Amino acid sequence: MDKGYAAWAARWRVPLGFALGVGYLIFSRPTMRLVAAGGTIALAGLIQRAYAAGCLEKNRALATCGPYAHTRNPLYLGSLVMGAGFAVAGGSWILGTAFLALFLLVYWPVMRREEASLRLQFGDAYEKYAVAVPFFFPSLRRATRTSGGFRWELYRKNREYQAAAGFGGGIAFLVLKMLLG
Q1: pTM for the full predicted model
Q2: Residues of 11-37 as b/e, b for ≥16 C-beta within 10 angstroms?
Q3: Which domain holds residue 145?
């Protein structure tokens, strides 16, 4: 992937996400059934993200335990699942398509860019890890190095509670829109 594009994607991922959020506020058409189904899917993504954040010491140690034993990008996988859940809950295939496009065009190159950084930082340890653990789609096979585990202090340090707050706010918005709409 072009390094210039990956840098652009990294810089614009949050503003583009907010733009998609505004579209979501306008175009979502929730129903009780969709909110229940999509909320359940999104909750699974939130749990995945929380578990991953609690195992991650950013820029200090190579994370290989917990969900990192199955995929090298469990936070992004959790984000994809959360986004898919909210797309279902919002009841708009256009929003779902826009989210998937945003993920593929913006977050995929960001993941590749972060991987290049981890290769530089952790060298051979990362190379061995990359051979054993898939890039994105999880494997049930465990990586060889799995020491460590979930720690609440890492969850807090990585500010993953923000995702939980976003999840709660998103569900509350959908329920309110459904009740008022």
Answers
A1: 0.89
A2: eebeebbeebeebbeeebebeeebbee
A3: 3-180
